[in-house]
Amino acid sequence: MTTASPVVHAGSAEESTALYDIPGPKARRRHRTYGLIATGLLLALFGWILYLLFDTDQFTATKWTPFEYKGIQELLLEGLANTLKAFGMAAVLSLVLGALLATGRLSDHAPVRWVSTLIVEFFRAMPVLVMIFFIFVALKVQPLPALVAGLTLYNGSVLAEVFRSGVNAVERGQHEAAFALGMRKTQVMTYVLVPQAARAMLPAIISQLVVALKDTSLGYLITYEEFLHAGKLIASNLDYDLPFIPVVMVISPIYIGMCMLLSWFAHWVARRQRRNPRTEAVEIAPAEPGTLLPGGGPPAAPRR
């Protein structure tokens, strides 16, 4: 006796999956209850924070009026521009350094592989702030190059491991087939392995770039006039009680917005890759009868 398997349409609410069973009515009610409880707790926490802000007079006009001054607005915009400048330079250099170190770690030459591994492991283990201070104080480098160099060495080493792991995650048969076709290793990496690994590596690359963006705030420790340094100047040089909370409430959403913009860019690139004709599935024509013999009939069975 055969049983027909249920057909699930693409637009149906309940889609079959091999990872978990579709929850039943009781499970769905339980999940809704958990969601309502979690939402209530988050709203209560948000309300408590708002109460504390109002209770400590953080929304009074006295503490927010300075942000209307043109000088303070220009100071914030200049700090934001310096932050984006440092991040842009560090991001590009980190990607280049990561690609070079990953290539060295994947090399067939043992000395190149050992040197690349030593560099990657050393700078991954070294704290970013220590590297920035060492370059700034010991090597007497200007604040911007010192900040960019420290961010590049750390994030480039981390990205090298991301690139190497992404390439090694591609199925082994892919590069074996490419070598069987007579391709050189450079061609195998360029045309076979890296294009397949790029989509898997993209989320980790964007996450590391977000880390680099947030770490640009370390520049204020070496007097680099970035966004956080501008906020510190505003909070420290006004005549009344230090308005640290309003400054944080202005700066934090901008940092969060820039990080969310990077994440949105990653999703946009991933969607474009899925729509790329080179990565879409090729439609196969339906099977047709074979070519008939000149006699017009199907081929006859061989005589015994």
What does this structure look like?
The protein has helices at 25-55, 61-64, 70-105, 110-125, 128-138, 143-169, 172-180, 185-215, 227-236, 244-275. Helix 3 (70-105) runs antiparallel to helix 4 (110-125) and helix 5 packs antiparallel against helix 6 (143-169). The protein is an all-alpha fold and 304 residues long.
Topology of helices and strands:
Blueprint: H1 25-55, H2 61-64, H3 70-105, H4 110-125, H5 128-138, H6 143-169, H7 172-180, H8 185-215, H9 227-236, H10 244-275
Summarize the structure.
By secondary structure, the protein is mainly α.
Q: Separation of termini?
A: 40 Å
Number of strands: 0
Helix content bin: 55-70%
Structural class: mainly alpha
Q: State the shape.
A: flat
Major pleated sheet: none
| Helix/strand order | HHHHHHHHHH
How many DSSP H or I helices?
A: 10
The radius of gyration computed from the alpha-carbon positions, rounded to a whole number of angstroms, is 29 Å
Approximately what portion of the residues adopt beta-strand conformation?
under 5%
Which stretches of 5+ consecutive residues score pLDDT under 50? 1-17
Average pLDDT value?
A: 80
